[in-house]
């Protein structure tokens, strides 16, 4: 048995018993030969048989014992990937070094996210593994910022492809013109009779001389890529292009030699130099256009990164000093001038202004800010000068978290991607087999001769396009995720984005979702006192109370001068009493007043009316006489009714969940247009309510505040948390809405539908393109030059179609009809 040794950094150990527990857990793992654990260094040296167990199994054993293994992650910008097979090659290469826990490679972003054990494997080891597989890694060590180095490397690759296209065009365009001229001369007998040698031999030498630079300069990248792919035991697009172009070029050389050495009667005089040059030039042009288009799929992330200013104005000892934003630490006071971006998450300590938060929340209206208000880094100060105190800086800011979440979500694979991955595994080998069948079929059965049989086989090799399959899903996911970030909608992963379009029921928590979540005074009714006088008396008493209704009354009276209450007394759940300005004031529920023999007959109609509107009636009595009623309610958000109507227009059944009694719940539901209500449920019972909907064969989305509703959000098919400002409640939810109201829910579902519709279109195109044109090429009705153009267009079409999502209007009431039928079509084609 050959064993491998690995040093695992263990977390959570505190004593010798912990050491024994970890050692025992690792020793019981199949394939482990020896474990040496050091409590002082928190390291476990494990010898194990790689043929029996692996690193993931060791980590699971440690975690099952209640401990952890320290890990780190790194993002590697990869160069040289062209199709889904390249993605698999890089994944396999990165999994080879000891110490790698998990690898996620994304073809669309051209990035690899690697989770590894520090000390066991290093970044340089990962880079070597990628390079050994025939690909490259962008070096970010010398750049001012990693994204700058990556952008520069991507730009350099685009420029390289552009130069190759220009070189190819310089030789290929004249070559095509001369080739057409030669064919034209063959149609004029007098020319052939006068200079037959010139009509063939000289032309072929000219063609060969012009095609050779194209084959060597443009073909090198495909031939090199093909050789590395084959050496890794796989086959990618480079194999098809290299075989097709090489077959055409080498056959042209054979024809040329046939003329020189007089065996042209065997090989013919029709050369394929022109086909080789056109194939390479057109496919390189396609790669250039594809690279340019793919660069735009991450525009949304680039915009978010650009929101953070590079400099901040430090306010210290009354002086303003410009510093780098990286040097800001929590507690620093910063000056934000009108029109400037706020550098970090902070709290306003001086000044008033309005702040444009649309780039993060999707809400177009500026938000007023004054002392004590939170501001988000990256938002724009519109009017007044603000002095803010830094609260969260660097990677802890809301913007940094959003960027990280979106990047991780863009890098995740949607379930629908499995279709393309499954097909891509067999695609290139299948095409090679079909090309061989085409060649021998036409040569032996069709008996059309070696040149024509070769031409048909080349067309099959060149027309097939695995790139479109590989790019169909990830490019649409990237653009969709980015568009969501611009709209204030954060999807945790690709699966959440995909699942959202399948929802047919939405459960809405009432408090904080449909309503504001904070009681507010809505009405003040009094016949004997003015509204302000009644409110001033009530608030003076309630200022000593901590009840939520008391807070609402005091907040409503903030414009009034309150009196300090004397002899304050509270009766839990019913009311309060105190002496204010020599008067005995009682504030409380109707029951509280009745117990104290206060006559409420003159206010009974008002009390009944308020309760019918789902409002709480608070009575105010002065010296034993009822003086008025204050109506308090958790007011409905202004956007809730329209958002619910939009959800219903999308074909979803909307259900409200609330702890209120049936009468109050139905009153609120009626105001917002909801027919289905589940009332009198405590937070723990909301999970059961969601399960009941799922039992009725509903695919349920649960919308809540992400805190009290966490279990229900986790139970739902898609959990949607409503956050505000810096509150990113992403842990328990699949989708987080930064805007703080329900209007983001129909937008999120509409975006999901639009993204999935784009994916279906991409997959349909990728499958149909290959299913139709490969047989056409096999039938001999497609020349290689046209095949190369079609192949180049295929990938560009998929990426460009995905990019349409950037400018597409996301209609919150879009049709919900055809996604399922489109998906069935794709599955049948696949």
Helicity, as a percent range? 40-55%
Query: Overall mean pLDDT score?
Result: 83
As an assembly, this protein is: single chain
Distance between the termini: 43 Å
Count of helical segments? 30
Strand content: 15-25%
Main sheet: strands, sense, barrel:
7 strands, mixed
Structural class: alpha+beta
Question: Uncertain spans, ≥5 residues at pLDDT below 50?
Answer: 142-146, 725-729, 815-830
Number of strands: 30
Radius of gyration: 35 Å
| C-alpha geometry | elongated
Which key features would you list for this structure?
single chain, alpha+beta, seven-stranded mixed sheet, six-stranded antiparallel sheet, elongated, disordered C terminus
At a glance:
The chain has 830 residues and is α+β, with helices and mostly antiparallel strands.
Can you describe this structure?
Strand 24 (616-622) and strand 25 form a beta hairpin. The chain has 30 helices and 30 strands. The strands form 6 sheets. A 7-stranded mixed sheet has the order 18-30-29-28-19-26-27, with helices on both faces. It has a 6-stranded antiparallel sheet with strand order 10-9-11-17-12-15, with no helix packed on it. The protein is α+β, with helices and mostly antiparallel strands and 830 residues long.
């Amino acid at each position: 048995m050959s064993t491998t040794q690995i040093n695992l950094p263990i977390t959570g150990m505190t004593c010798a018993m912990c050491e024994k527990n970890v050692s025992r857990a690792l020793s019981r793992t199949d394939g482990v030969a020896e474990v040496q654990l050091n409590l002082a260094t928190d390291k476990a040296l494990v010898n194990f048989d790689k043929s029996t167990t692996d690193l993931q199994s060791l980590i699971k054993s440690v975690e099952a014992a209640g401990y952890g293994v320290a890990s780190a992650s790194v993002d590697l910008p990869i160069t040289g990937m062209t199709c889904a097979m390249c993605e698999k090659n890089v994944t396999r290469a990165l999994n080879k070094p000891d110490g790698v826990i998990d690898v996620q490679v994304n073809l669309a972003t051209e990035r690899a996210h690697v989770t590894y054990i520090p000390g066991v494997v290093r970044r340089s080891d990962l880079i070597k593994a990628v390079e050994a597989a025939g690909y490259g890694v962008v070096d970010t060590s010398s750049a001012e910022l990693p994204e700058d180095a990556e952008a520069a490397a991507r730009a350099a690759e685009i420029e390289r492809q552009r130069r190759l296209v220009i070189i190819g065009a310089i030789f290929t365009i004249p070559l095509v013109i001369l080739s057409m001229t030669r064919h034209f001369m063959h149609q004029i007998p007098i020319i052939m009779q006068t200079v037959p040698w010139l009509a063939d031999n000289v032309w072929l030498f000219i063609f060969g001389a012009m095609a050779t630079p194209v084959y060597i300069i443009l073909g090198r990248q495909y031939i090199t890529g093909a050789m590395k792919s084959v050496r890794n035991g796989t086959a990618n697009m480079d194999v098809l292009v290299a075989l097709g172009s090489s077959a055409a070029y080498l056959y042209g050389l054979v024809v040329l030699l046939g003329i020189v050495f007089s065996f042209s009667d065997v090989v013919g005089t029709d050369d394929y130099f022109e086909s080789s040059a056109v194939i390479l030039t057109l496919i390189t042009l396609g790669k250039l256009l594809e690279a340019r288009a793919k660069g735009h799929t991450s525009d949304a992330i680039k915009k978010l990164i650009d929101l953070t200013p590079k400099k901040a104005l430090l306010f210290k000892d009354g002086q303003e000093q410009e510093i780098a934003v990286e040097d800001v630490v929590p507690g620093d006071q910063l000056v934000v001038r009108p029109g400037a971006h706020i550098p970090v998450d902070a709290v306003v300590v001086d000044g008033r202004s309005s702040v444009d938060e649309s780039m993060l929340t999707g809400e177009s209206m500026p938000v007023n800010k004054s002392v004590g208000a939170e501001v988000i880094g990256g938002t724009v100060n519109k009017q007044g000068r603000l002095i803010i105190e830094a609260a969260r800086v660097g990677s802890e800011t809301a913007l940094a978290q959003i960027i990280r979440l979106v990047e991780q979500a863009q890098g995740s694979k949607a379930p629908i991607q499995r279709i393309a991955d499954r097909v891509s595994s067999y695609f290139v080998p299948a095409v090679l087999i079909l090309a061989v069948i085409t060649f021998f079929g036409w040569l032996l059965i069709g008996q059309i001769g070696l040149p024509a049989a070769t031409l048909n086989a080349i067309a099959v090799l060149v027309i097939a396009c695995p790139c479109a399959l590989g790019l169909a899903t990830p490019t649409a996911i990237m653009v969709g995720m980015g568009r969501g970030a611009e709209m204030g909608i954060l999807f945790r992963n690709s699966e959440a984005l995909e699942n959202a379009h399948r929802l047919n029921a939405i459960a809405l928590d009432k408090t904080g979702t449909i309503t504001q979540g904070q009681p507010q005074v809505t009405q003040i009714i009094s016949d004997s006192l003015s509204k302000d006088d009644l409110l001033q008396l009530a608030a003076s008493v309630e200022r000593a109370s901590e009840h939520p209704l008391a807070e609402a009354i005091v907040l409503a009276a903030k414009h009034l001068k309150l009196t300090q209450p004397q002899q304050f007394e509270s009766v839990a759940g019913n009311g309060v009493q105190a002496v204010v300005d020599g008067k005995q004031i009682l504030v409380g529920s109707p029951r509280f007043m009745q117990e104290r023999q206060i006559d409420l007959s003159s206010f009974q109609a008002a009390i009944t009316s308020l309760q019918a509107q789902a409002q709480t009636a608070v009575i105010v009595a002065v010296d034993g006489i009822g003086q008025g009623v204050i109506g308090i309610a958790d007011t409905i958000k202004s956007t809730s009714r329209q958002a619910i109507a939009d959800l219903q227009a999308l074909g979803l059944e909307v259900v409200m969940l609330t702890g209120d009694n049936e009468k109050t719940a139905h009153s609120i539901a009626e105001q917002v247009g909801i027919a289905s209500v589940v009332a009198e449920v405590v937070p723990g019972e909301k999970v059961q309510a969601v399960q009941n909907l799922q039992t009725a064969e509903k695919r349920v989305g649960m919308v809540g505040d992400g805190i009290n509703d966490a279990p229900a959000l986790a139970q739902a098919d898609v959990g949607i948390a409503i956050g505000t400002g810096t509150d990113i409640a992403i842990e328990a939810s699949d989708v987080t809405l930064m805007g703080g109201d329900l209007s983001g829910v129909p937008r999120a579902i509409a975006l999901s539908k639009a993204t999935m519709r784009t994916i279906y279109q991409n997959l349909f195109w990728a499958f149909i393109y290959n299913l139709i044109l490969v047989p056409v090429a096999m039938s001999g009705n497609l020349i290689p030059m046209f095949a190369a153009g079609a192949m180049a267009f295929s990938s560009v079409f998929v990426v460009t179609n995905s990019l349409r999502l950037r400018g597409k209007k996301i209609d919150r009431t879009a049709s919900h009809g055809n996604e399922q039928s489109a998906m069935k079509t794709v599955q049948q084609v696949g």
